[in-house]
Amino acid sequence: MTRRLARPCAVAGVLAALVGAVGAIALRIADPAPVIPGSFGFGNVALVGFEVLGLTFATVGALLVVRRPENAVGWCMVLIGDGYALAGMTAVVTLSAVADGPSGAATARLAGWLTVFFTTMGGLVFGLGLIFPTGRGHTAGWDRLLRLMVITWPGLAVVLFLIRPGPLHVFGTIDNPFGIGPDLRVFFGPQMSSVIAGFSVFFVPFLGWSIVSRYRMSDSVGRQQLKWFILALLVALGGIVLAGFGGLVSGNEPPEVGLAVFGFAGALVPIAIGIAILRYRLYDIDRLISRTITYGAVTAVLAGVFAVAGVGLGILLGSFAEKQTIAVAGSTLLVVALFGPLRRRAQTLVDQRFDRSSYDASLTVEAMTRRLRDDVDLARVEADVLGVVDRTFHPSSAGVWLREASR
To answer: Crossing angle, helix 268-278 and helix 72-99, to 10 degrees?
Structure first.
């Protein structure tokens, strides 16, 4: 049943995300209504970022659903992608309806509520780390915990976001049209953003514990898969942190930048998940990690050298008229001269720690050549050659072809 439903569900998921992305951007171009205050910095750049994120999640998730229908990760990714993409479209409808004044009030409330609903669907992204890459918990205890979360989360989402009286979670100036029951603002405040932030403080270490525990219990393939996921996650989080820091330094409001970076950088996560689960060039992750660390370290060092050299040259030049121009030029030349040697040295040090198979490849081949020079046992020669090839190149399959002796 799952396999029969996989392809139509995957196609429907991609189409829904595509409709949401195209519809949101087209409507925003046709009717660039003002952004509602208190909507978490939602703007044009953030909208495009979220649509890219949603479409990427839905597309990669649909591919996984077709190729690995028994794995829950692909199905969750389709829901996440549709949630983000459709939330962008309903958010744009909300902005346009609010701009229409009293005549669009009912449409604004309904579209705003749908935005909350779809963003709640997108919130499933926080649970991916608990089931990646197998689609379930890695122990019986984690499986029981996941079942408990599956049972309780929908109810909490309905109570805290969908039927909570008062302002909507995403749009603080619009009241919930389906709000019933007690007013929870007494306990959680006027907005749920503080509750979500507090929840993340506890959930992020919990998620990290799950990933570390799974990594320690995984085989070599499972660890390579987790490396893809962790690297993409760190890049996305690093982008958000840099965006927020840049906003603080420049004095501008950081939320718009943060949401945009979350969209564009977060699109790396579904791509990494797809590569890991489909095992496409799986072992390239060690090289990617080493290159990322190398260029990150080199960039940080050169930035420090540029700043120190610029200040130092400025002080040495004193009151010279063109001291600022000369200081910048001198610092630039120094950075250019240091880049090559520094990159090579950093790459060697990083490869020794994170990409040993590449670093030791030549030494491994030389050692094998010495061993096989006087070995006449074909079975032992074949086993040695295949072992070296597997350790250095990590092929999906390998074999040895021996030519028959001429008679």
So the answer is: 160
